[in-house]
Amino acid sequence: MNRYIVLLAIGFLISCNGTNEIKTDSQLSPLTPGDRVASALPRNDDPNVSSVSTGLLANDIGALGINIYQNAVSSSEGNVLLSPYSVYTALAMTYAGAAGTTADEMVNALPISLAEDELHSQLNALDLRLVSESDGDSKLEVLNQLWGQAGFSWKPGFLDKLAINYGAGLQSLDFQANAEQSRLEINQWVEDATNNRIVELLPENSLDSRTALVLTNTIFFQANWDKVFDPNITMDREFNLLDGSALQTESMYQSGSFKYYSGAGYQSVRIPYEGDQTSFLVILPDENTFTIFEESFNLSILDEAIANQQTTPIALTVPKFSFVADLDLAETLSTLGMPTAFTPAADFSQMSDVGLLSLDDVRHKAFIRVDEEGTEAAAATAVEVGVTSEPANVLPVALNRPFIFAIMDEQANLPLFLGRVIDPTQ
């Protein structure tokens, strides 16, 4: 059975730039080492949201995803993977503690088109729906966890928002006394939450005595294709690289009806997952145009590809691939319009009154695998099968050159994941 697995973790590192004086009063919730602090309020498991607001949120998530994608590919020559949904969710949690210019910049940079309470409710509703649609071998799981400096105090209003809308609590660690041990503990939690796929989210020396809070988010996605690929037809096929050279890589094949659209300079194909709640959307630029096409790739093209697809008989070839992607998003987010959050002028006073808090770094790491169970065992006979001709009136679409892909939530038309494959063997 074919499975598509994506694992992602993102970490927000928040440091203390001012005094470390501990304030405790009736408006603050103090921490002692080893405490787990969470609001007494339960998660709202039935948020009342409107479809109009859902559409605005989906558009905002897509816009952020495209902007981060463009920044990532401008400094990378290889494969790229990110989760617009996960990054947006983690930023929204951070926004819950922002105020003043810092909050205003985050509204513009993400962007945020909804009032704050509605934003958190919409993200809660989206997360609950995605999780509820998981069944059998298809699942999507999201975990949120905060890690705060022991002895510091965190405002109940901030903890309430995280508990009600994200099901998140806060675990105390002592960054001041032992930053390295704290880093190892956070990394172990991330590794456990992602079935040992995301290792070393926080690299050595990424935390120090100034660290006040680390916000982590992990996402796990696994789904079977709606129509499985026959492993007996998997064989080495040619994949053309950007430099004009070619390599042989294991590729799957099937012929059937898929949603398809041919736009200006590209083709798009939607490969549904079991249950038809999510799909693998491919954007395949015309031959020898990938770099030029990618420079102009935007949310409008993604929307156009989705809106205009029609069911078409297709002979489809898809390379198998697996890779890990690592992104440092601090500079990207500053460039997108929220630089103050990374400076001593940052205002995260809605989180705590202890010191002056600012974002120190945002780290993003992902793993993806597209494969079939038993493919290697069948490889010896797969080469013998081959495909010598296509049925009449079937359009051949071969992902035999660099392509852009997105894992889409069908109901909201939003990209849960976004990336590109430059070399499937990387």
Task: Tell me what the structure shows.
This protein has 426 residues and is an alpha+beta fold. The protein is built from ten helices and 18 strands. Strands 4, 9, 10, 11, 12, 13, 16, 17 and 18 form a nine-stranded mixed sheet that branches. The N terminus is likely disordered.
Total strand segments: 18
Structural class: alpha+beta
CATH architecture of the largest domain: 2-Layer Sandwich
Distance linking N and C termini: 23 Å
Q: Tell me the fraction of residues in β-strands, as a range.
A: 25-35%
What's the number of domains? 2
The CATH superfamily title of the largest domain = Antithrombin, subunit I, domain 2
Q: Fraction of residues in helices?
A: 25-40%
Could you spell the SSE succession in H and E letters? EEEHEHHHEEHEHEEEEEHHEEHEHEEE
Give the overall shape: globular
Helix tally? 10
Can I get a quick summary?
This protein is α+β, with helices and mostly antiparallel strands. The protein is built from ten helices and 18 strands. It starts with a strand and ends in a 5-residue tail after the last strand.
